[in-house]
Amino acid sequence: MGVEQLEGPGNGERPLLDFPLSRRGDVLPQECAWLREKAPVARVRTLTGDPAWLVSSYALAKQVLEDERFSLKDTANAGVPRQYALTIPPEVVNNMGNINSAGLRNAVMKALNPRQKGLRDLLRAKAHELVDAIVAEGGPADLRAGFADPFSAALHCQVLGVPFEDRRRLMSGLDVAFMTAREPFADSALNWYKDVGYFAGRLNDQLALAPEERTGLLGRFAGLKEADPESAHLTDDMFATVAVSLFGAGAVSTSAFLTLAVLALLQRPELIGYLRRHPERMAGAVEELLRWNLSVGDGLPRIALADVQVGDVPVKEGELVLVLLEGANFDPAAFERPDELDLERESANPHLAFGAGRHFCPASALGRAHAEIALEVLVERLPGLRLAVPAENLVWRTGFIKRLPERLPVAW
User: What span is annotated as the signal peptide, if there is one (predicted)?
Assistant: First the structure.
């Protein structure tokens, strides 16, 4: 449904818009501005056919994300309206809540700290290694398969304490785990438990090592299993479930963001030159690219735990609310010149790319470091980087939690 249909003759009720919107990640969906101005809380129909409220203004998006009467955990309950069928176990949806309740938060937050010794140097070396391989092969090259995916996998393999050589099998599982299907399918569980088994095996590998030889989050978990009586009730599968969910959510998010950030720069080649001349601006550039990024294709879901007024709409207990990030992050009420990708943006950049409230992404600092290092190396090593095909010929993935081009062909 386009803007023309939204503005067409009505029957006095709020329009019912089919959601999600466009799957292209390099063009802001045309409905965003209309929704924000005319219906900042709009009635939509999700992929499963369920009704939901779509919130598209910055102020109302922030209200929903920060109000604990809107629950992420309860979006996995039986019988509630859904965006799409669950393809991971319901208990994994509230992963950070599970981590906190299991007493694992301290270990997880230490593993997600980008300032841990040697991590930035390791990532910079891996980025150079990946660029070396691309250059040796020659262009055009697929920057997503050759750089964004393996660089994101490298970060998360290091953080978790598993071999980088296993990245392909782990990344391939994400293609199934983060599908957005209309109905459940049996082998989504097979996919999930295959990776749980893998991480349980790597946990046992860490247990076999001397304490000083252990690495990553699984190394920390091995220490808890041995020395912490408060963790005695936790099974290997419970530890592995935390690792699987952190790898999945982290790797798919960082790779998708990096892919679309590079694409945004490729469509504005002067910005690549700007970043090469001004590496000191990289942190601010990443913030602006986070605001600009359209990788979250389906909205952030919450279930109302009570009747709550959102704008002029009384949202009822049990209803599904979806926060449209591309609406909020391009809202002129919150951002000056929001339709301009401005790497010199000096004013506050309070984007919602990492969410807000209780479910603000715990790996936000790690994600920023990942992007800064990747872009620093790319603009340094490949100053002539350019899109090797017309942008309209990119093939965008459907049925996936992220907006992603299947390939990102580049030359230099």
Answer: none
